[in-house]
From TrEMBL:
Protein name: Pimeloyl-ACP methyl ester carboxylesterase
InterPro entries, sorted: AB_hydrolase, AB_hydrolase_1, AB_hydrolase_fold
Organism domain of life: Bacteria
Species the sequence originates in: Rhodovulum bhavnagarense
Residue stretches making up the AB hydrolase-1 domain: 28-280
Pfam family membership, one: Abhydrolase_1
Segment forming the signal sequence: none
Length: 303
């Protein structure tokens, strides 16, 4: 475990050594989590299994986990620079980058801007913003039971402001607010609105996200105009594994990216939603291990 100083911002990173007897020299794996998560996501997803293929580097994005929370620097350009700086600090010239959700936007931006640093990508349930502007996340307010609407109002949450065409920021903020305000009841409320019982594992994490999401600079950076477009993505030629839950709101992104990039492999995971790497790690690990082994051995045909 280490704190890496990147322009005065300390980023929390952990390098997990290779544990197998496979020959050394394979490109390490670097893991990029999504918004409102931390490197703990990857432990839940079974990162230890992947150390059989090589060393694994996990880190907390700025504003997340144990990393510092600066006032600015939450755009893709800065967060990509953070990723490269963490790699540099661990003397990793080139890596297989494994990512989830918003982490995939950081990884794709990095692959476009610094292709020599990225050997392959594993994109686990990533909304690719140029290909899918909004997510269909919530049950529409008009479809919620009146009793649930009244309960939300008593918690200071206006059900009418819960959009089922969200960019993800308001969604995460609402989830955090409900978890903070409703206590043990939060799971039932969130299941009724979003079809899952919650995301934040502690009050501290939920509170941190609410505070972060109240910062105009943070939200504006996340919602800034796309730093790359579909044409740029179409020029990517590195191997990419796209994993997506068949019931996930990011399914449209996955299919569009697969159509756009001939070097992608698409795997739709039946009956799974956005967080399947954490809730059902085997469904994430099996195709990931197979793909990365093929990348390392140069045997991608038929993966």
């Amino acid at each position: 475990m280490a704190m890496i100083d990147v322009g005065g911002v300390r980023l929390h990173a952990t390098l997990i050594p290779q544990r197998s007897r496979r020959p050394a020299g394979q490109a390490p794996m670097v893991f990029v989590h999504g918004l409102a998560a931390s490197q703990a996501f990857w432990y839940a997803a079974g990162v230890q299994v992947l150390t059989g293929l090589g060393p694994c580097l996990v880190y907390d994005l700025r504003g997340h986990g144990k990393s510092d929370t600066p006032e600015t620097g939450f755009g893709l350009d800065r967060m990509s620079a953070d990723l490269l700086a963490v790699m540099d600090a661990h003397e990793i010239p080139r890596a297989n980058i494994v990512c989830h959700s918003f982490g995939g936007m950081i990884a794709l931006y990095t692959a476009l801007k610094a292709p020599e640093r990225v050997q392959s990508l594993v994109l686990a349930d990533v909304r690719v913003r140029p290909l899918q502007q909004k997510l269909d996340i919530a049950v529409p307010a008009k479809a919620l039971p009146p009793g649930l609407i009244r309960r939300l109002r008593s918690l200071g949450i206006d059900a009418g402001q819960i959009s089922n065409a969200d960019d993800g920021v308001d969604y995460l903020r609402t989830v955090a607010r409900i978890q903070l305000a409703a206590g043990d009841e939060a799971g039932d409320l969130l299941s009724a609105i979003y079809h899952h019982p919650g995301l934040f594992r502690s009050r501290r994490n939920a509170q941190k996200w609410v505070q972060l999401a109240e910062r105009a600079a943070f939200v504006d950076a996340l919602r800034e105009g796309d730093s790359f477009g579909a044409q740029d993505l179409g020029r990517l030629s590195l191997p990419m594994l796209i994993l997506v839950g068949a019931k996930s709101s990011t399914l449209a992104s996955a299919r569009a990216l697969h159509e756009l990039c001939p070097t992608t492999v698409l795997r739709e995971i039946p009956d799974m939603g956005h967080f399947f790497p954490m809730s059902r790690p085997r469904l994430f690990l099996r195709p990931t291990v197979r793909f990365l082994h093929a990348v390392n051995t140069g045997r991608l045909k038929g993966v």
